[in-house]
Design brief:
The protein is α+β, with helices and mostly antiparallel strands and 143 residues long. It has one domain. The chain is 28% helix and 10% strand. It has a three-stranded mixed beta sheet. Strands 2-3 form a two-stranded antiparallel sheet.
Length: 143
């Protein structure tokens, strides 16, 4: 589903009409995230234990919840690798596949740093307007 959101082709590249990847590439540090959604450079994902993090909840989009979710969805667990730990509930509870896919897209944007420094940063790090991972995730998810 993450590959669908990003509009990736069968060769781990964005299709020419990918609005998601076009928006990401317009930003400093942006790249074609499809390379991280399949193939040899794919994100490495582990799942947190069911008692490790609280469930994610859907909330109204506001300045504190830019994507409409509250709680830890995923965290980067390595220094220079593409290893991410995802919330158990996103991976195992029904009805969260859209959030899991959107979160995978979000985390893949951070991996742009491996091919185009500084990559895409979270909003709290003050990237240029419209270029935070949260804002771009909303573009990709059609929010």
């Amino acid at each position: 589903m993450a590959r669908e959101i990003a509009a990736c082709d069968g060769h781990n590249r964005a299709k020419p009409d990918s609005q998601c990847v076009a928006a990401i590439k317009r930003c400093p540090g942006g790249c074609d995230i499809c390379q991280f959604l399949g193939g040899p450079d794919e994100l490495r994902i582990e799942v947190a234990g069911p008692d490790e993090w609280a469930p994610v909840t859907r909330v109204p989009i506001d300045e504190n919840n830019l994507n409409g979710y509250k709680g830890d969805r995923a965290k980067h667990t390595g220094i220079i690798n593409r290893m991410y730990k995802f919330n158990w509930y996103l991976c195992h509870e029904q009805g969260w596949d859209d959030v899991l896919a959107s979160t995978i897209v979000h985390e893949s944007m951070h991996s742009c740093a491996s091919v185009n420094m500084p990559g895409i940063a979270d909003y709290k790090l003050h990237p240029p307007p419209g270029c935070s991972a949260e804002e771009l995730e909303n573009v990709c998810a059609g929010k």
